[in-house]
Write a structure and sequence with these properties.
The protein has five helices and ten strands. It is globular, with a radius of gyration of 19 Å. Helices cover about 30% and strands about 25% of the residues.
């Protein structure tokens, strides 16, 4: 069923009731898995993921999944494994280990955190990030990046700053050549199927882009606007994740005092 975009110009609202620059409801928790070195649970709208971190630990180089190192054995290797549940999407499709899209996401996440983490502090070791996707409704890569950031913070692995991510899209396709097309922030699953979009990840609340992925075609004149909206959305995500971390830290301090 085609996405009806006629309501955008009439009520300035999207199908789920949001304005163009509004994020979906975001909920996150830290230390959800007691057996893991670091863990997190994150919801972006109806996209729900669980992330666990193991390490830094010795060995496991060359393991299955996407991985990236920071320059030989002098730096730690970051390995990423993504498991997508068969019931997570409407098509109930089970993705195997060799799925191309999953492998690309693993490599993207591994490269991003290899540059953000202080891997030089953990020579000859491996940091394993495992992401379990429970539900998909758009912004999957962004949700995985945000969940991995929280899990790494919970594991106590030092990094230069948060890696926060979100998506932005355009209300017009590449072929329509609509000059009045408006940018949209944090697309849901239905919007991603019909509209061009990109996933942008920044380092903290600044404008230093660490992840930029775009799989659809869009006119080059709109790219700058999409990127600006995405970076602004990342700043909002940073504030939300920072509140989650501070709230968890305050809970730990209160438990120690009492």
């Amino acid at each position: 069923m085609p996405l009806d975009t006629s309501t955008y110009s009439l009520a300035l609202l999207r199908l789920d009731g949001r304005r163009w620059n509004e994020l979906r409801r975001m909920h996150a928790q830290i230390s959800t898995q007691a057996a893991a070195d670091g863990s997190s649970y994150l919801e972006m709208g109806n996209t729900k993921v669980i992330c666990t971190v193991a390490g830094p630990s010795e060995g496991k180089r060359g393991a299955a999944g996407g991985g990236a190192g920071g320059g030989g054995d002098t730096n730690a290797s970051v390995q990423v494994e993504i498991g997508i549940a068969g019931f997570s999407g409407v098509d109930r499709k089970r993705r195997g280990r060799g799925d191309k899209r999953t492998s690309e996401m693993q490599m993207t996440i591994a490269n991003a955190f290899s540059n953000a983490l202080f891997t030089h502090l953990y020579a000859h070791s491996t940091i394993l990030i495992t992401v379990h996707v429970l539900s998909q409704d758009g912004s999957l890569l962004a949700a995985c990046l945000n969940a991995a950031t929280l899990a790494l913070i919970d594991a106590g692995i030092p990094m230069s700053d948060y890696i926060v991510a979100c998506t932005s899209g355009s209300t017009s396709s590449n072929s329509s050549n609509d000059e009045a097309a408006d940018p949209l922030l944090d697309l849901n699953g239905l919007e991603e199927q019909e509209l061009p979009f990109l996933t942008v990840g920044t380092l903290g609340a600044g404008e230093k882009v660490s992840v930029l992925v775009m799989e659809s075609r869009v006119q080059v004149e709109r790219l700058e606007g999409l990127l600006a909206v995405g970076v602004d959305g990342c700043k909002q995500v940073k504030e939300i994740l920072d509140q989650v971390v501070r709230r968890h830290g305050k809970k730990i301090l209160d438990s120690i005092v009492t």
